[in-house]
Amino acid sequence: MKPLVPLRHGEVGMYNCGPTVYDRQHIGNLYSYLVADVVRRTFEYFGLRVKQVMNITDVGHIVDDADAGVDKMAVGAERAGKTPLQIADEYTRLFMEDRHRLNILDPHVIPKATDHIPEMIALIERLIAKGNAYVAADGVYFDVTTFPGYGTRLNAELPEQRVAGARVEVNENKRHPSDFALWRRAKAGDLQQWDSPWGRGNPGWHIECSAMSMKYLGETFDLHSGGEDHLFPHHECEIAQSEAATGKPFVNYWVHVRFLRVDSEKMAKSKGGFVTLDDVAGWGYDPLAFRLLALGAGYRNGLDFTRDGMNAAQSRLERWRRTIRAAYAATQGRVAEPEGEHVITREFREALADDLNSPRALAAAEKALALAAIVDTDEQERALWMLFDMDRVLGLSLQAAAAAKDELSSEERAVFEQREAARKSGDYAKSDALRKELLERFGIQVKDTKDGTRWERVGRKGA
After folding, report:
1. Quick check: 345 pLDDT over 70?
2. In the CATH scheme, what is the homologous superfamily, with its name and number, of domain 265-403?
3. Partner of 22 at 20 to 30 A CA spacing, among 48, 213, 429, 460?
4. What are the residue ranges spanned by the domains of the chain?
């Protein structure tokens, strides 16, 4: 870990490897973008101007990340009976909707691979001219023997990753087995292909990110992020081809996000572990409870997604909202910035500055929440200001929650009214059963008073 020193004073350029839009993005993919969002928000919280670029991969990504096989976009198109660009538009829209549900900020630039074929061709031409790439019968390859240290530049990021585990397929057109494709000559049936100096074809996955990141951020930029699965081969290939072409360092800082696991296992469709944000919402969880769960993990530790964990995160989010709403009502919407830097704000800032230690940052926010619960409007005003200030990074919509009226959903209202009818008719066994259902299913506690029935959200029982 080393201190961040931007290339330009007060500014940060950051690039996030975007999705391959051939299918819905699962929560493991979204977790990586959540981390990138916290990185950006932290930079902005500390007063830096950020230019964030995230690409959309709508061509070039082979299913096994190697050079031989089927393009993921072709797989998605065949499955849906549509064109690659039709499914790219559909899944890009759904991906952006999921990001918004998680309060992930929109990048400043969202380039599509298919809109940047000329930039990729120009970069490949530079590599050929410098002797780092060669034309073969089936396309153009990067010659890894011309780039010392290929495949080892990022070992320190995740030491257990080993290049030896890379997928290498024998290809007689390659000079070296590890050479990777920059351009693939079109094959019969290819749905996406373009003209190039080397014939009709399509780009390799790795060249796309180099071409797009350098176009919008320059030949050297501050920070590049992605999941740990991108470390090799994707990011190592990006480094090799970019630095070979420019003769300059490519990226100064890397953020690799550990895998999200479901019940301690890697997510896999074959095991029923492919979970989307729609699934999470369908189980009754607020998407922001997933964001809160992620904040409590720390990006270097990975995230284990479990129902128990989500129950706890949902209950925690509801408790925060309940406390903040009560404090906001008590102060009649007034907040007050503390004089000088409050010790809690300092703890929050120090946590973020310590390698984005979001669990410690949440602990500081919990201290502010405790102050908000004190029956002292001056203290509550200061606590609310701190919480709203912290939410610039946490992204939990705390200010909106403070002013919102808590209402029952239609499903919750139906059970509540059934319970009211049972109580009024004297069917106390059914009334008690429905009271239990409201608590265990929705986290709603019901109280019968002389003034009528009251309810409040307390979180699911046992969460």
Report:
1. yes
2. Isoleucyl-tRNA Synthetase; Domain 1 (1.10.730.10)
3. 213
4. 11-257, 265-403, 410-457
Per-residue pLDDT, averaged over 437-452, amounts to 82
Please write down the HEC assignment for all residues of 174-208: CCCCCCEEEEEECCCCCCCCECCCCCCEEECHHHH
Pairing of strands 251-257, 260-262: unpaired
Q: Which of 16, 67, 28 is nearest to 266 (CA)?
A: 28
Cβ–Cβ under 8 Å, residues 256 and 225? yes
CB atoms under 10 Å from CB of 177, counted, come to 11
DSSP string, 244-301: HHHSS--EEEEEEEPPEEETTEE--GGGT----HHHHHHTT--HHHHHHHHHTT-TTT
Question: Which residue, chain included where needed, has tokens 């350029």?
Answer: 13
The span from the CA of 202 to the CA of 196, in Å, is 9
How do beta strands 221-227 and 251-257 pair?
parallel
The model carries a pTM of 0.87
d(CA 230, CA 81): 29
Average of per-residue pLDDT values in the chain: 90
pLDDT score for 276? 95
Cα→Cα distances 96→19, 54, 111, 114, 222, Å: 11, 12, 14, 18, 25
> CA 286 to CA 290: how far, in whole Å?
7
Q: With contact defined as beta carbons under 8 Å apart, do 91 and 26 qualify?
A: no
DSSP state of 168: -
Alpha carbons 369 and 374: distance in angstroms, whole number: 9
| Phi, psi (degrees; rounded to nearest 5) at 126 | -60, -45
CA dist., res. 68 & res. 51, Å (int): 35
Domain 11-257 fold? Rossmann fold (3.40.50)
pLDDT tens string 148-165: 999 898 875 654 544 433
Token pair for 358: 């979001």
